[in-house]
Amino acid sequence: MRSVRIGVDTGGTFTDVVAVDEQTGEILTTKTPSTPANPANGFIASIEKLGELDVSSIVHGTTVATNQLLEDRIANLGFITTEGFEYVLEIARQSVPDGYGNSYFWVKPPRIVPVHLVKTVGGRLDHLGAEVRPFSEEQATEVARWFKSKGVTAIGVCFLHSYANPEHERRMREVLWREHPEAVISLSSDVLREYREYERSVTTLVDAAVKPAMRGYIANLSNRLGMPFSVMKSNGGVLSAREVVNQPITTVLSGPAAGALGAALIASTAGHKSVITLDGGGTSTDVAVVIDGEPSITTEGSIGRYPCKIPMIDIITVGAGGGSIAWISPEGTLKVGPRSAGADPGPLCYGRGGTEVTVTDAHVFLGRIPPHLLGGEIPLDADATRTGIQALADKLGLTPERTATGILEISAFNQSNAIRQLTVKRGLDVRDFPLVTFGGSGPLLACRLIDILGLPAVVVPRDPGNVSAFGLLTVDVKNDYVRTYVTRDLSLGKAAEIFHDLEHQAGEALDREGFDDPIYLRSADLRYYGQAYEVRVTAPAGEIDAAWQADVIERFHEAHQKLYGYAYRDDPRHGVEWVNLRVSGIGPITRPGIRRLEKAGEGATSVRPVHFDETRDTPIHQRAALGPGAAIKGPAVIEEYGSTIPVHPGFTAKVDEYGNVEIRRD
């Protein structure tokens, strides 16, 4: 029996699986419909579909935490903070989405915890962690008993300046354990030991909010699997399920992060070091930027309306998937998304009771995808699609063809806007980056994105619907640790002490994961004195001395120049201020190799009517039958098990030596 490593990515519509044979490197892929009511069912079904295998390890990309936040399913959550700071969530930040021109219309959203579920406890630390007023055990006991009486079982604790000294928070946890043992507790000093109390509070509360659901899901899955498994984290690493339940917030971009990493490895192998990645699923589209083989990392991310300052791959998500619903606004204009038909009931063509036209229905109507999905496993109801699009076209006063084309055009512009947010808004020229597109619906709009954005090329990997699951098998175990240390006069001894402490924490966690020889990566957040926000730069390993300090400061000047167009390298009026010191502890794994495509496989070419600029009989190619060097001129359609590539007129698709399809305008 073959020994395999398995990656399972649970998406909104499909659960994708990749198995890598540890002896031969052979890759097996499959998909099953997701089961939103209980994602564990789809997970187990997908593994069973692979058949009898000797499974050595499983890595999972999950959307449990993400969906809970995106759908605002947060209840029964309490907050404990320092006396006098009960309105920290209400005050928040002064920023208004979409700028101040929107301030007249913008309505402040409800807080993650309403005011009546916020309680305070006496005690105060200064910004260096020294105790100004002692912790009030009496008030802490009253608060714990009050939450117990109200049945609040998820509680976040964030005291002022606990990043400098966690002692008061830990004493609060001991009181909660004693007085309210049923409570699930998150401490800000465990979740995010970094200053800025509002972001630290919300990040801690998000962690507390998703803990019960994640713990229940992981426990259910562990019992049904009967073996340990790992979970993908937002920072581009993995962690064992038994560890990740203690900080479930680290999984909020679990699946999208795996897709970006898998696409980065595939693109680098094919010679594209810097690319844009686009993961098109059934519910949403996720976009990331890869520079020199590494996806960009941010700590300024958010999930839905909640800022989360944990390190995560910089991903923009838009509601522009295959299941995105087309609808008519009150003004009579056609809109697409962000609402999705999901996996159940799904698009009209699924025949499961869906009543609204989706992006997938538009592709079916125009003939751009086959009359079935997954190699015939999911037959599509073309008649239901025609009826739905005709009804929508009648309301708009357009032909059905114009209506379906318009749906796809709007979806393409929604995706292109997400790409611009990660490129143009960050000073990058989108025309410098090939696009790596994957996911079941990702390749469907490749040609339109080339035209809209001026992209040099689009690369579609082999088995594009399973790239995220493949990415799960390419990532190391990774933990991130941070400590705020704000100073213009860096004490080398203090910096060495903090880095040593952070590396010790990382080493303990990796030791529990079974790694004897971990790798430690240092970084630091710096700014010019008087600035409000920082720039993160890598910091070298080795002895922390004057040369090390000068090296980090020079890296900061270079990064600031690149980001903002100026630096104060030689201006003594603008001193450099250190803000945060960081360590990433990495336990390296053996990555699966990406094998060259030796020759074409089997698959016959056929013809069916497809509408691009007009409806005409169009060649339909089976991707398996295309060997290295094969070139397909549009109009044409390239089909495979998990996805489809429409090649528009005026474009050519070529197969490279690794089996990727590269699309360029003629």
Mean pLDDT: 91
Instruction: Give a quick account of the main beta sheet: strands, pairing sense, barrel closure.
Output: 9 strands, mixed
List segments where confidence is low: pLDDT < 50 over at least 5 consecutive residues: none
Structural class, from secondary structure content?
alpha+beta
Q: What percent strand?
A: 25-35%
| Total beta-strand segments | 37
Q: What is the count of DSSP helices, taking H or I runs of 4+ residues?
A: 16
Multimer state: single chain
- Work out the radius of gyration: 26 Å
Per the principal axes of the C-alpha atoms, what is the gross shape? globular
Distance between the termini: 48 Å
Helix content: 25-40%
Protein name: Hydantoinase/oxoprolinase family protein
Pfam family, one: Hydantoinase_A
Can you walk me through this structure?
The structure is a single chain. With 666 residues, this protein is of the alpha+beta class. Helices cover 30% and strands 28% of the residues. The protein contains 16 helices and 37 strands. Strands 13, 14, 15, 20, 25, 26, 33, 36 and 37 form a 9-stranded mixed beta sheet that branches. A 6-stranded mixed beta sheet has the order 3-2-1-4-11-12. The chain has a 4-stranded parallel beta sheet with strand order 6-5-9-10, with helices on both faces.
